[in-house]
Amino acid sequence: MSVIATIHQEKYSTILETPSGTFIADEHLEAGGTQKGMNSHELLLAGLATCTAITLRMYADRKAWSIIGIQVQVNITTEADPEKGTQIERSIQLSGTFTSEQEERLLYIANRCPIHKILSGTMHIHTTLNTSP
């Protein structure tokens, strides 16, 4: 999977090209952007929230459990204290009737969504820089 982000001179509107389509990311007005799209933190959180909701929906559908709706809220705080690091809080609201065993299993499954595993695992980013006139 690959995403290409291209920014020109308009602050800070960035074109995102993905296999699924083209999107715009930006910064909020108070950060000097034009607020045409989500900022980087919102995109990161959207990935976790979306992955969680889809993973739960897929699992419930496979089990034929009746989930009427799933809402995932994700918040991020960046701490100045390096010991605390960045904290992400995720709250999942399910509509439907569930046994306590189903609730436990759904929480377990939410913590196994692919983006959750990436964010909570060890990550390495290798960067190269290429220049052109």
Description of the structure:
The chain is of the alpha+beta class and 133 residues long. It folds into two domains: 1-37; 40-120, K homology (KH) domain (GMP Synthetase, Chain A, domain 3, 2-Layer Sandwich), CATH 3.30.300.20. 32% of the residues lie in helices and 26% in strands. It is built from three helices and five strands. It has helices spanning 40-63, 100-110, 114-120, and strands at residues 4-7, 14-18, 21-25, 69-78, 86-95. The strands form two sheets. It has a three-stranded antiparallel sheet with strand order 1-2-3, with no helix packed on it. It is elongated. The mean pLDDT is 93.
Task: Summarize this structure as a short list of keywords or feature phrases.
133 residues; alpha+beta; GMP Synthetase, Chain A, domain 3; 2 domains; three-stranded antiparallel β-sheet; two-stranded antiparallel ribbon; 5 strands; 32% helix; elongated
Question: Which secondary structure elements does this structure contain, and how are they paired or packed?
Answer:
Elements lengths: L3 E4 L6 E5 L2 E5 L14 H24 L5 E10 L7 E10 L4 H11 L3 H7 L13
